[in-house]
Write a structure and sequence with these properties.
79% helix, 5 helices
């Protein structure tokens, strides 16, 4: 159970590292593909700085999740994981209602599954 929760946390962390990369460094290429239909193409260049700021926050989420994997105290590791997974879930649910229903399945659901396994160990 513990190994599975760490694998799921790692997957969520990697996903947010990818989001960091996309929003900070590839907004006008990968961002256009990811948000195709949600934004007009001409809006990607003027929103590049805003996207980079969002990417930085995704990096913080990823850093917290990676950090919890290296904490040797099981209780402390679980507490840190619960906090950062909770942040990802809230962000995913907010994005579901404000941007795209797809965000629930891509962002919130993996974090919810990881959180369930953390709580079950």
């Amino acid at each position: 159970m513990e190994l599975l929760s760490k694998i799921l946390i790692g997957i969520v962390a990697l996903e947010h590292l990818f989001i960091l990369y996309m929003e900070m460094f590839a907004w006008e290429t990968l961002g256009k593909k990811a948000f195709k239909g949600a934004m007009k193409d001409e809006l990607f260049q003027p929103t590049k700085t805003l996207a980079a700021n969002q990417g930085l926050y995704n990096g913080f989420l990823s850093a917290g999740l990676i950090w919890c994997l290296f904490i040797s105290n099981k209780e402390w590791s679980s507490n840190v994981a619960v906090f950062f997974l909770g942040c990802v879930i809230v962000a995913g649910i907010y994005g579901t209602f404000t941007a795209s229903k797809k965000i629930f399945f891509v962002q919130a659901l993996p974090a919810i599954l990881a959180l369930l396994f953390v709580l079950l160990q």
